[in-house]
Amino acid sequence: MAKLELGIISGVWDGTPVGREEGMRKVKEIGFDSYDIFEDPLDMTTEEQARIKELADELELPIRSCVCVNFALVDFNPSVQRFALDRGRAYIEQAKLYGARNVVLVIGEYYWDDEVIPKDGVWQIAVDNVKALAQDADAAGVDLVIELEPFTQALVKDVPELVRFVKDVGHPRVKANADISHLHLAKTEFSDVALMTGMIGHVHLSDCDGEVHGDLPPGRGKTPIKEYLQAVIDTGLDDSTVALELEYSPDPANIVAWVEEAYESSARILDELGVRSLSGSAA
Hints:
This protein is α/β, with parallel strands linked by helices. The protein has 8 helices and 8 strands, in the order βαβαβαβαβαβαβαβα.
């Protein structure tokens, strides 16, 4: 039987009264098994990064992933691409410092309505740059997990494109992120999740109305979360992390209640599927 941790991404606290350290303590207090970091290492001091690692160890709250939105990886300017690669390497080093398993990487979108640089040209820029980052990730012992973004101009907007991208990069450190609400927004059939068999390196969990990106607590939308998660498990995923991705709470002052609600509904789904791995026991 598969065993999965329940984690949460630190971005949930953005724009709320809850600060970085208080947020980590609340996550542990509520009962989460692990934590994902969504903070740009280029906007942090080495002391701040060290404190996150120190507190995570103190709380016995393992950090499993660092989230990197890096659209500049597909910019047509070589100088911008070089910066994007250096920034990606900083995330890899951040993940290594924290003892994380992976960097979840958002690679960007097509531009200029495909009239100046054709889609296959932008695609190849992304493939080449992720291949370059994969070498650094391999040296650091960290995976790169590619995010499916269910938007019209996204390079990787559905499961077939995600699978194609991972195969085109062709490096064992490059894997797929199974984002449950994004699968729903992309109108993914449950059976199509099997296309990612052997590729899934991380899972994001949230709800939505099926039409507009939401990142809501499970139960507040229409996503068939349990069915998608079962399909993900059926690919053979085991000893991995399901990380709650909650953003833009309508009531930031009561964000803790929002997180507690999401924890309870998510934990219930994992319990019903019989896959909950408690207290960070998935190594």
